[in-house]
Amino acid sequence: MTVTLYAPSYFCRRCIWLKTCVLCSEASQRLDIMPRKRRRCQSSVCNMGSEIVEPDNAISTDVLLSSDPCTSPNVVSSNLVDLKRLTFFPFNSLPADCQLHIFSFLSEVEKCRAALVCQSWSVLMRTPRLWRVADFVRLGAFHSGIDEVLVSTREFERWKEWVYQYAYHLTSRSASLMVLHASFDLSDQKSKWKDFLLHFLEDIHCNDLEVLDLNWTLTYLEPIDFGPQASMTGASLVKMEQMKNFQVLLEKLTRSSPKLTKMKLPFDWSQRSVTLLSHFKQLSTLELKYFWVFKGVCPSIMRELTNSLPNLKNLTLHVLVPVRDLGISYALESRSLEFLDVSQSHGLVFGYLHLPSLKELRIKKAVRGIILNRRTRLALQSKWTCLYDLLKKGTPNLQLINGEKLLPQWREFGYHELHAILLQSCYCLKHSDTWLL
Fold first, then answer.
1. Does the pLDDT at position 370 exceed 70?
2. Residue 287 CB contacts under 8 Å (≥ 6 apart), including other chains
3. Rg for the chain (alpha carbons), in Å?
4. With a threshold of 0.90, does the pTM exceed it?
5. How far apart are CA 15 and CA 21, in angstroms?
6. Under 8 Å between Cβ of 212 and 263
7. Cα 301–302–308 angle (5° rounding)?
8. Please, how many CA atoms are within 13 Å of residue 13, restricted to the half-sphere of its CB?
9. Which of 31, 76, 78, 40 is nearest to 58 (CA)?
């Protein structure tokens, strides 16, 4: 006689062994409404005799019972299937998008190891969107975690070999990059890093590139040359070559990566470079470092750049004003800018600010050790507007200066803490009485 039985499931706390309990005498009784029971685990896997607990909300299943239901092969096979379901997760049964999402949390080394597991995983690991980061500034396994080190020529050659192998690894997978970190001297005629970067950008998908951290003035880990220093003319030629190659690379990025939102790089502040940089309308974070100590910044070009980036939120400027340009003041205009950091700049004096959305400002007056007589110093400082007056008119939403929160009435009257900040930040006659600039 065959009847239908609704049976709960029992789980061993130690070995997660599944045992379906059946009632032989009264097969028609619903077992899922019976009170909680505790039994000993009878699994051959578990020798500890841990308790089996029946859950309050037992799972009801239809079991076809024979004349001896406890020894029915249907019950035994059902238990084995349930045990297999508990032991193994059907990862390969997931949709490909779910598998790729899980693999995306692995590091690059872990992805390479996962590709060795089976053929299906190896195929998945070649998906372009799994490879989102290209970091050429890593030191590899032999100097991991160190920012600046002195290496031998042999180690530098090893690093160069790793760079080419790493680039081949990404291009062979048609990587779809979102982040690119690199540091290469674009004027290096021997290694030809400019051609290397251009070919690399051609061979990968960089339309989704969002973050660019590029130092194009020096090659990472390149040994220091202790030979005779080049003349001023030779150094100028090298800088001009670097600037020309940088503009070629930047023009390439304007076509291939228009979605860039964050950039960090040295900047030469030439008219062509500013025009190219203004094409990245999605930029929200920008950090520009000074390119050369003798390269000045035209005030109108700086104003043009901030005006041409409608989504710019965070701006960090490292500007080194040459001695010949002392006395020049600069203007900044941006309706979207919320954070401005010029604390690493030397000689940067503002004459006009129109930043209605600015919430935080970091600014510091740098004493450069230029000794001036009183008459010359007064002639220079008389041209500079007080920073306090500029902030009152041009930054209506300002809340923080150098990490210090401003009082709500800071525009109506000054106070001691604000005066101390201005002494460290403002170049005007009121807040600077030293003969050093």
1. no
2. 263, 264, 265, 315, 316, 318
3. 34
4. no
5. 17
6. yes
7. 85
8. 11
9. 31
